[in-house]
From TrEMBL:
<comment type="similarity">
    <text>Belongs to the iron/ascorbate-dependent oxidoreductase family.</text>
</comment>
<dbReference type="GO" id="GO:0051213">
    <property type="term" value="F:dioxygenase activity"/>
</dbReference>
<feature type="domain" description="Fe2OG dioxygenase">
    <location>
        <begin position="204"/>
        <end position="306"/>
    </location>
</feature>
<protein>
    <submittedName>
        <fullName>Deacetoxyvindoline 4-hydroxylase-like</fullName>
    </submittedName>
</protein>
<dbReference type="InterPro" id="IPR026992">
    <property type="entry name" value="DIOX_N"/>
</dbReference>
<keyword id="KW-0479">Metal-binding</keyword>
<dbReference type="Pfam" id="PF14226">
    <property type="entry name" value="DIOX_N"/>
</dbReference>
<dbReference type="InterPro" id="IPR005123">
    <property type="entry name" value="Oxoglu/Fe-dep_dioxygenase_dom"/>
</dbReference>
<dbReference type="InterPro" id="IPR044861">
    <property type="entry name" value="IPNS-like_FE2OG_OXY"/>
</dbReference>
<dbReference type="InterPro" id="IPR027443">
    <property type="entry name" value="IPNS-like_sf"/>
</dbReference>
<dbReference type="GO" id="GO:0046872">
    <property type="term" value="F:metal ion binding"/>
</dbReference>
<keyword id="KW-0560">Oxidoreductase</keyword>
<keyword id="KW-0408">Iron</keyword>
<dbReference type="Pfam" id="PF03171">
    <property type="entry name" value="2OG-FeII_Oxy"/>
</dbReference>
Amino acid sequence: MAAYSESERLAELRAFDATKAGVKGLVDAGFTTIPRFFVHPEVEPTSGSNLQVPVVDLGGVASGDPARRAAAAAAAGRAAEGLGLFHVVNHGVPQQVLDEMLERVRGFHEEGVDAKGEYYTRDLSRKVVYNCNFDLFRTQAANWRDTLSFSMAPDPPRPEELPLACRDIAFKYASYVQKLGTVLLELLSESLGLNPDHLIKMECADGLRFFMHYYPACPEPHLTLGTSKHSDSGFITILLQDSLGGLQVLRQNQWLDVPPVPGSFIVNMGDLLQLVSNDKLKSVEHRVVAKSSGPRISVAGSFSTSHATSSRLYGPIKELTSHNNPPRYKEVTLKDFIAHYNHKGLNGKPALDHFKL
């Protein structure tokens, strides 16, 4: 592909952004090639192998069975230390709620620009944000996806502030995910040898933001990505995805597929959890490949990725450090960490490196 100047690239980005139609608009317009700013210089090849993802069974945990709770905490801890993610089954969220959430997210993204365009913005501080690539004007190459996001905790929007397409189900789904996140953070606390409420008292479950991604079928999937390599910014992410697949995890320098498991969630550790655990729990690098089929729908619930105004400092938990295992990260406010993460964008470089001692 012929090189083009930065001024040409910027003009194309502005013209695209002004449509407020995202990549869905390109597909609707019948594009058979992708715009130049979506082309990635190099797309690392897929290994072709499936990742063996550990499974954490929450059956019996809610009922207070101590043996099953201990088993779930141990399984979550092993997975979080080794791989950085796991499947969760018997989580208590009805299948009907999962199905409706995915259906309503698809419904929003497939509305016309007149309906969804009012939510289109580059101001990430707004309660409801719809756009194509939050870092569109900073990244080297854009990703083939559109996203609707909004914070549901600690300060949820009023119902009328959310798009009608997903308004009712969003609040119902959020209440389930909030409870599930609390249980998972309790189990991870126990796996670290801490009191069950340790991470909860650190306010790790106080912030919850949803990212509702739409990955349309791509005419040239070999040239771009749905989401480029990154790790998540928060403490944990609870991911709901449809059956299409496309999620991959970087493991020993190989990109491995994470096949969807119907009815389950993927839970992955985020950068802030790796920071407070002093590298005990691992934030996992992952990406989403572009596909010629689609659309792929996913809903990521990320805990504590809201722009908190709290002055609370997060650093390695004192009980997890010692003379032989000193703190590896400096203390940082959530606001400053997220500001660095968003400014950096999805450039493939770990955000945690910036905070290492």
